[in-house]
Structures are given as C-alpha cells and as structure tokens.
Amino acid sequence: MLSINYQTENIIVDHLPIMVCWSTNYPQKSFSIKVYKGAELVSLIAREGNNTIVTLDAISLQSFTSYTIEVLTHGDNGENNVFRNSFTTSNLGHFSGRWVSGGHHFTNDIHYYRGKRNVVMRKTIYLDEDLLDAYISIVGLGFYKLYINGKEVTRGELNTDWTNYAKIIYYDTYNIKPFINQPKNEVIVELADGWFNPAPLKLFGKYNLRETLTIGEPQVIADIYMRFADREMIIGSDADWQYCEGAYTFNNIYLGERLDMKLFRGDNTTDLLMPDWKNVVLSNGPEGRLVSSFIPKINHTLSLGAEHIHVVDEETFIIDFGAIVTGFIDLSITASENQRVELLYSEDVDENYELNTDSTLAGFVGKQVTEGVIIDGGIGAPARAEQKDAFECRSGKNHFINAFTCHSFRYVQLSGINIEQLNNVQALSVHTVLRENGGFYCSDPYINKLFEVAKRTKLNNIHSVFGDCARERFAYGGDIVALARSQVYQFDSAAIYKKTIFDFINDIRPCGGVTETAPFMGIKTNGVGGETGPLGWQLVLPYLIAIHYRHYGNVNLLAESLPFLEKQILSLEMRDFDDLVTCCLGDWGSRVHDMRNYKNGSPALHFTSACFYYYHLLIIAKICDDLGFKEKWLKYIGKANKIREKILSLYKNTDGSFADRSQTSFVFAIYFDLCDDIESSLNALIDLIKKEQNVITCGIFGQSFAYEIFHRYGHNELILEWLRVEAGFKKMLKNDASTLKEFFGDNLNGSNNHAMFSSYSSWLFQALGGITVAEEAVGADVILISPSFTDTINFVDCWHQTIRGRIECRWRRYKKGIELVIKVPFNLKKCTLKLPKVYQLNKQLPAPIDCDTYHHFYDITDAGEIKVLL
C-alpha cells in the first residue's frame, strides 16, 4: 500500500511537499517514483538505497486535477514491486466564493439560551450538458452537513475541524459528480453553531468562550467546480445563494440540541415543509488561511443496544447501555402530534438509580465544588449545565439522532413518553476515526481489559482535537504529553499529531510562549505569563514534534517548527529561574496532591518544573542535531547542562535523593538521569511503592515516566503488580466500568471518561510485547525487540504497524521452554533483539553484537521472520 501524506484513500492535496511511503517484503536496493497528471508524466525520480519515505516537492499542482503516484522498487535478488495510489487537488485554498450567512446576531447573553432556529442554505444549479467532473470545496462554520438532491455528501460528523479560525481554517473537498442530475440540482448546506458560535456560558464560573475563541454567526464559503467537454466552471458562494430557518431550534456543543420534527419530512432535516427562502448576507468571515483538511474525519464506529431499562413512572424511564460512550443517541418512537420528548444524559447513577450528572456538567456549572460554593454559569445560563436534548414530535413514527452535538453517557433518561412508544434505541460511539496501528493480547484477561479500556477512553475524547473529557473538551498540552507514547503505539496519529502541532503553533502568544490548551480558550493556570501555559503543558510543542519525527520521519515539519521552538525558549528565559520553576502544575493528578492547595499542591513542584525546563532544552538540542545545526546544538545542549547543574545544586539531597523524596521526585530524577547511583535510587523508589502496597502515587507525568524507567531497568513485575492492585485501576473499573476515571480515589470532582492515566498501554507494547521504536529513530527506522517474560503471563501476541511496515512479537510458554516469534519489516536502519542471558537458545541466532550484565544483543536487521526457543 502506498501512503500519500499519511493517507491511503480519499486523498486531497492542496500544497507541497508531498510525503509518500511504502514497505516491501525484501531488502530494497533501488526505487523510482513517477507522478502522472492523467496520462502525462510530470515527475520522475530514481534513487539507490533502501529508503521507503520520500518527500516530493518539484511538482506543479493544478487545481481540481487527479494525479497518480507510481513507485517501482527493486531488490538484490531480482525482486520488484509496483505501488500506486492517487490524489486529487482542490482549489488549492484559493476560493472564488465569498463567506455567506443568514445575518442573524443575538443581542445579549440570555437570548442565546432561549434558542433560535439554525440556518439552512441552498444553491440551485441548472445543467444542460454532459458533466465530466464535479467537485466542491467547502467550509461550514461551526458545524455543517452537505446535501445534493436530497442525498448527504458529507462523509463525517461534527465537521468542520476545530482550530483557531483566525489563523487557519480547514476546508473539505468532495467528488460530487455521482450526486449531480440533469437539468436541476439543489445544493443544501445545513449549519449549526459548533465551536464558532458558542454559548456565553462561564465555564468554571469565569471562562466565556465567546471572549477568547474566534467566533461569529454560522456561515459558509464554497467553490463548486464543474468540467464539461469544452469548458470549466466554478460556482462560488455569493449573494445569489439563499437561506432559510432550519428544523433545529437550539444547538450547543455542551448543552445539546432541540429539534422540531413537524418542520420537515422523513428523516432528512433539510427537507423542510414550509421554507421561507431569503438571500444570504455576505460576510468577511474569519481571517484564517484556508487549508485542505488532512486528518481522518469524525464518524460512527460502534453501536450499543440497551442492556437494561428502568421505569421511573408512566412517562419517564432510564436506559442503561452498559458502557460509557461519547457520541450520539439513535432513537425511534411512535408518538402523537406535538408530544415533547426530553433526554438527559449521564455517566453514572446514584444509589437510588437517579442520574448523577455531576461528572459531565460543562465547566462545573451548577456543581457544588466545596461547601456552599456552586459554580454559576452567568446571565441566562441553566442552573446546571447538563447534557440534554429534546424534540417535538409529529404524529406517527419519529426518528431522532444527534447531528451537531455529542454526549458522554452510559445512561439516558427519556421523559414525555412511555416505554411502549419506544421502537428502537442505540448509543453510537462517535470520534475521529484513527486507524489502529497496534494490538495486544495476553494470557491475563484483566490485562487485556486494561488495554481495551485505554483504547476506548482515548477514542471517546478525540474529536479533531485531543479533548480531555465531556466537561471541557479542550486539548490540554499536559495530557497530550503524558499520553503521547501510548497514543502512537495504539493509533496511526501522524496526521492528527501534525494538526495538533499546528494548533499549538497557531496559538503561540506574542511573547513566544505556548498556551495551556489549543485552541486557546483562556485557561492559563500557573502559566509562565502572557496567557501562556505552565511549563509541563508548554512541553507539548517540542515533545510532540520529537515524537512525530521519531515515528513518522517528517523532516520538513521538524525544520518548519524549529523557529517557533526557539522563540518559546526565549520566552522561558525571560523569567528568572527561581520564578520560572513556580510556573507549573507539576505532576498533575498525584494521589499525594495537597488538595488544600489546588494550584501548587503537586509533589516536588519546583523540582519537577525545573525538570520540564531541562527537558525543553534537551529536546530542542536534539532537534537541532537532527537538522544538522551543530552550532545551535552546542548552544542548547550547553544551556541544558547549566540547568542540570542548577537542578543538582538546588534539589539534590545529601543522601542522593531529590526534593521531597516522594515517588514523583524519584521517578523524575531517574528518568532525567540525575542520580549518582541509578540502582540505589530505583531500590529506594521500589521501597516507597511497596510501602504503599504496590500503589504508584505519581500523577500523569510520573506514571508515564515510571512505565519507561521500570521497563528500561528490568522491573516489569512491579508494573504488573501495580496494574493489578485493588486500589488502582481495578477500583476505577468497578461496577462494570469500561472507561477510565479522571482521578484515583473518590473522583468526586472528576470525569468517568478521561484518558489521562492510560499511558500504561505503551508499557504493554514495549515491555510485555517487546516492541520499541528507539529514541534515535527517524520514521521508525531503528527498532528494539525486548520482550519481558514475566512469570505471571503465559503468552503475549503483540503487533505494531509502523510507517515502514508491520512488527510482530509473539511468545508462549511450553514445557520445553518459551517459543518466541518475531517479524520485522525490511529496510530498517537497525533492528536489535535483546534477550536475557539466563535463557539458553535452542536455535542458534547470529553471534551477539553486544552484551551487558544481564542481556545479549543480536542484530536482526532485514531478518524478516525469526523463531527462537528459549
């Protein structure tokens, strides 16, 4: 399979360079790449070597044109392969159309909550000649659905991709020729508020998204391209387009949507009964640069039926779907005219089987957070910012499915109908559809459940950004850092990580600092200043760039990002070191966090903050080295060494420990190689964990680092004990829970659907599964295979699909020994197998290339498949 810009189907390209990659089942000695525009050859390159990731930047792209890339590879023994894939260009971001809207603006906050009908737009096109090609490039802000002649064209849900619309706006391009008829065609765009027209709700009592996001009334910009035998035509959105009021009487990303079934026919909410069409209003639109969307779209993936229905009274019942999903309700009922149905969603119920909506209240609005303190959402806001939907019925069958909001729920309470009126109901999981690029299965069903729980919780919160939970839905840099390793082993994250990097770059503050969330929505708790985020959260930009380069090898992205990283370092250097280390939240989520001091209660706060600063400098130094900038590398590694010395002088205790001697301080000291004696520090850390009955008390960063260091130094049984301890994840997963909670312990102020502690899945891949993409890798070209044969596991099947091919590592215990089967892709720079010396090999491997006290190291580059009995 040939990948183009990390995509394999429905590929739209609007700018250079183009990144192509492939894998062969033999050692490659040479390759050629041809690019065709139709039948015309427009580019040809031929090279020696085994590189399977190539950047194309010498092609002249023409708008609304199809191209084919053909790669021919050759092996040493006469092998060859041909790989082909195609892409289509859009309007290359140059729109002929104008931004158009319905021109409605509410005048004060309270009017928003009273609701208004959404906007539907149309353009009628008459054709009297044969059509050869037809495409549309379109943006609908905030969310949109596109129909042509009554059929939906949009392939995803909750379009458009969320970002800072003042800097960049992602448009979609569709092939619409299959939808076009003769002579009359009606193009319909249904709009909703999305992130572009948010409620004036004061999240946490103070953050009004309308004051920080780029906002406006829902609007559209579009180009419809048509090619005929002797001419081409572009129909852009303009004053000739029309709009009317739609069937949704209210919609909001947090608070839900309200629909009037009596306003439209059938299931198509744009097939309106009495539309009052008027001319649209021309708008200037947001200022962001228009760029073709390149990430996977949000869509339905799985559906859950009702596991239990609890009847409250004649017109109220609660449906339990058995698992928490983030997504839509899909509901069919038989009702009478004007019957009103209300839906209330929750992740949990209390002991009386009443919905407990506290964990999903938007910005805690309506929640009593401390004695006598209830968060107020501002003028006109609901008393409790709950997830709700409602619809007014027509006589007969009514079908309701969410369109412009999604909810996090296991339970939904229906009011206004009796259970006999219910025909069908299911919960639909809706998220950005990331391709799984890793799998894990072992002999322990509980560990397998943990793997699936991590996967489900992560996906539940990805909707074009890496959201945290339904309460906020924001992409926090700290959470992203803590989960980055586990994310890339579990899902193909090349495209969405690239977008996330751009999101944070686009929200860099004038001082050069990085925000706590991207898009930035106002939160800057313990930030460095000038609306920037705390040190550990600012780490998201350099860290994600480094992870992306290691796994996906995009050197252009590395070079493009470096100037922003240098400005970020300058912004950090503007603060005195002693002041700078106070600008962080530290190891967030630690069990030993001092809850009396919410902002500064994390263990070893100043020490961990200093380590984050040190990490900033180490990463930018390595990026400069990767780009061949020796002088810059010397500059930043010199700065890093000075900070290291400062850390040692300020935070190292006389006994060799650091800071407050907490688990977090030991983990950070070991991870950043600050200890004089690693073994004694590890033993001290292990003693601390044992004293806590095998509970790791670290927060999101400390746990992520702990999985790395305990695998690195061979203490994998300790991690298994931690994962299995009753006071840990087992407590999180009581009552048949299928998602992780935000916090360990009582989780009173936390979400029941939060992924920030799911970093353990990287340990499953690297330790039990034995598959590691090495720190020095470029596009996953350096691999270490090092499975841990822990006594309490009898078999493991693990695989990881890298950009260079699939890696498999499987092992099973038999009476005669452990059978180990490894498959690695060809054309890697280096692949090393690390095995404990205590095992004798019943099948001879090549002579070890190296050894340490406990292990032999074998070169298995280009070995293909290996089977060994230990």
Short description:
The chain is of the alpha+beta class. The protein has 16 helices and 47 strands. Strands 21, 22, 26, 27, 28, 29, 34, 35, 36 and 37 form a 10-stranded mixed β-sheet that branches. Strands 9, 11, 14, 18, 19, 24 and 25 form a 7-stranded mixed β-sheet that branches. Strands 13-12-15-10-20-23 form a 6-stranded antiparallel β-sheet, with no helix packed on it.
User: If helices are DSSP runs of H or I spanning 4 or more residues, what is the number of helices?
Assistant: 16
Based on secondary structure, the structural category is alpha+beta
CATH class of the largest domain: Mainly Alpha
Tell me the fraction of residues in β-strands, as a range. 25-35%
Shape: globular
Instruction: Look at the structure and give the mean pLDDT.
Output: 95
Low-confidence stretches: none
Distance between the terminal alpha carbons, to the nearest Å? 35 Å
Q: Domains counted in the coordinates: how many?
A: 5
CATH topology of the largest domain: Glycosyltransferase
Catalytic activity: Hydrolysis of terminal non-reducing alpha-L-rhamnose residues in alpha-L-rhamnosides
Organism: Klebsiella pneumoniae
GO molecular function: alpha-L-rhamnosidase activity
GO biological process, one term: carbohydrate metabolic process
Fold and architecture overview:
With 870 residues, the chain is an alpha+beta fold. It has five domains: 2-89, Immunoglobulin-like (Sandwich); 100-294, Galactose-binding domain-like (Jelly Rolls); 299-432, Sandwich (Jelly Rolls); 438-767, Glycosyltransferase (Alpha/alpha barrel), CATH 1.50.10.10; 782-869, Maltose phosphorylase, domain 3 (Sandwich). The chain contains 16 helices and 47 strands. Strands 21, 22, 26, 27, 28, 29, 34, 35, 36 and 37 form a ten-stranded mixed beta sheet that branches. Strands 9, 11, 14, 18, 19, 24 and 25 form a seven-stranded mixed beta sheet that branches. Strands 13-12-15-10-20-23 form a six-stranded antiparallel beta sheet, with no helix packed on it. Helix 11 (663-671) runs antiparallel to helix 12. The radius of gyration is 28 Å and the shape is globular. The relative contact order is 0.08. The model has no long low-confidence stretch (mean pLDDT 95).
